[in-house]
C-alpha cells in the first residue's frame, strides 16, 4: 500500500483551500492509500517534516500551502539521501510553481492526479546551502514583495504585489545595486535594479517572466534588469505580462548552470518568496533532482 504524508500549512493564503484537506484524506483512503496528515506549527517545521517523511520511506509527500511552504518542504527533501515523490496542492497567495504545472484546486480533480501517479523529474536551484524550486531574486522585486503585508496578500493575492510595486517604483528608481557577476569564467561589473533566477517561466504572478525557462533542462534562466530610464524599466514590466520582454535592451537574459553575484551593499536575497540571507551568493542547478506529480 502506498504511503502518503500530507504536510499542510493551516495559515497559508486565505485558509480556504485547507478546508478541503480532510476530504482529500478521505478520497485517498478510499483509493486504498495509507495517509498521514500533519499541520505545520511554525517556520521551518515544514522543512523538518519534508526531511523526516523522506527518511521514513513515504512514497509521496503532498504539500498544501504557498510557495514558502513548498520551499521548506523541498529544502527538507533535498537534505535526505532518499527522496519521496512530491505533489503540490496550491493554497498560497500566488502559487507560481503550482500554477505553472496547472495543478487543479478542485479536490476531486487533484485526487485523480494522485491516483494516476504521473510524474516528471524537475530541476532544483541552490544558493549555497539553501534550495529553491522556482525563483531566486535580489533588488527591486524582493523589496516590493516583502513590503506587502500578509493581510494584503491574503485579500488581494498577486495584485497586492502589483499595487505595492506601483507605490514603490519611483523610490526604487534611485537605488541601483552595484554587483560583480561571475559566470562561465567571465567577470562583469554592473549597476542593476534587480536580478531574477527562474526555474519556471512563472514568477510573482506573472506567467511569462522567464519565457524560455524549462523546469527539467538542467539550466536556470537569469534575468538582469540594468539601471536605466523609468520608461525602459516600465516597458519591461508591461511586456512581461505577455513574455515579449526577453530581448529588451535594458534586460540581460542568460541561461546558466552556476554563477556567483557579489555586492558590497547589504542586499537581501529572496528564495521562493522568502528571505534567505544576503549577497554575495553562489548559485547552481541540481539537474532533475525531484520527482513531481503532474496532471
Instruction: Tell me the CATH architecture of the largest domain.
Output: Sandwich
Give the overall form: elongated
Following the backbone from N to C, one meets helices and strands in this order, namely EHEHEHEHHEEEHHHEEEHEEEEE
C-alpha Rg, in Å?
Answer: 19 Å
- Please state the average pLDDT score: 86
Global structural class: alpha+beta
Counting DSSP H or I runs of 4 or more residues, the number of helices is 9
Total of domains: 2
Low-confidence stretches: 148-164
Pfam family, one: YegS_C
Protein name: Diacylglycerol kinase (ATP)
GO molecular function: ATP binding; ATP-dependent diacylglycerol kinase activity; metal ion binding
Cofactor: Mg(2+)
What tags apply to this protein structure?
single chain; 295 residues; alpha+beta; Rossmann fold; Tumour Suppressor Smad4; 2 domains; eleven-stranded antiparallel beta sheet; four-stranded parallel beta sheet; 9 helices; 29% helix
Give an overview of the whole structure.
It is a single chain. The protein is α+β, with helices and mostly antiparallel strands and 295 residues long. It has two domains: 3-117, Rossmann fold (3-Layer(aba) Sandwich), CATH 3.40.50; 135-288, Tumour Suppressor Smad4, CATH 2.60.200. It has nine helices and 15 strands. The chain has helices at 21-30, 45-55, 67-78, 96-100, 107-116, 140-145, 150-156, 158-172, 230-240; strands at residues 3-8, 34-39, 60-65, 85-90, 119-127, 130-132, 135-139, 177-183, 186-198, 220-226, 251-256, 258-262, 268-271, 274-278, 281-293. Strand 3 (60-65), helix 3 (67-78) and strand 4 (85-90) form a beta-alpha-beta unit. The radius of gyration is 19 Å and the shape is elongated. Residues 148-164 have low confidence and may be disordered.
Amino acid at each position: 500500500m502506498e504511503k502518503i504524508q500530507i504536510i499542510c500549512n493551516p495559515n497559508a493564503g486565505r485558509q480556504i483551500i485547507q478546508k478541503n484537506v480532510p476530504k482529500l484524506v478521505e478520497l485517498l483512503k478510499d483509493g486504498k492509500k495509507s495517509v498521514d496528515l500533519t499541520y505545520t506549527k511554525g517556520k521551518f517545521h515544514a522543512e523538518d517534516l519534508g526531511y523526516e517523511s523522506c527518511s521514513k520511506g513515504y512514497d509521496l509527500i503532498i504539500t498544501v500551502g504557498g510557495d514558502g511552504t513548498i520551499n521548506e518542504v523541498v529544502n527538507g527533501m533535498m537534505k535526505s539521501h532518499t527522496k519521496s515523490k512530491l505533489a503540490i496542492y496550491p493554497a498560497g497567495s500566488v502559487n507560481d510553481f503550482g500554477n505553472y504545472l496547472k495543478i487543479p484546486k478542485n479536490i476531486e480533480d487533484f485526487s485523480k492526479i494522485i491516483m494516476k501517479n504521473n510524474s516528471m523529474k524537475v530541476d532544483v536551484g541552490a544558493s549555497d546551502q539553501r534550495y529553491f524550486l522556482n525563483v531566486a531574486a535580489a533588488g527591486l522585486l524582493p523589496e516590493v514583495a516583502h513590503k506587502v503585508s500578509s493581510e494584503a496578500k491574503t485579500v488581494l493575492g498577486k495584485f497586492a504585489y502589483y499595487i505595492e510595486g506601483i507605490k514603490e517604483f519611483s523610490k526604487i528608481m534611485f537605488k541601483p545595486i552595484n554587483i560583480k557577476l561571475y559566470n562561465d569564467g567571465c567577470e562583469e561589473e554592473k549597476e542593476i535594479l534587480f536580478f531574477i533566477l527562474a526555474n519556471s517561466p512563472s514568477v510573482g504572478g506573472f506567467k511569462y517572466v522567464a519565457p524560455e525557462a524549462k523546469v527539467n533542462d538542467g539550466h536556470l534562466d537569469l534575468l538582469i534588469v540594468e539601471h536605466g530610464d523609468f520608461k525602459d524599466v516600465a516597458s519591461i514590466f508591461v511586456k512581461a505580462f505577455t513574455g515579449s520582454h526577453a530581448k529588451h535592451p535594458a534586460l540581460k537574459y542568460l541561461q546558466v548552470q552556476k554563477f556567483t553575484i557579489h555586492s558590497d551593499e547589504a542586499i537581501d536575497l529572496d528564495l521562493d518568496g522568502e528571505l534567505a540571507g544576503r549577497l554575495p551568493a553562489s548559485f547552481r542547478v541540481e539537474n532533475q533532482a525531484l520527482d513531481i506529480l503532474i496532471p
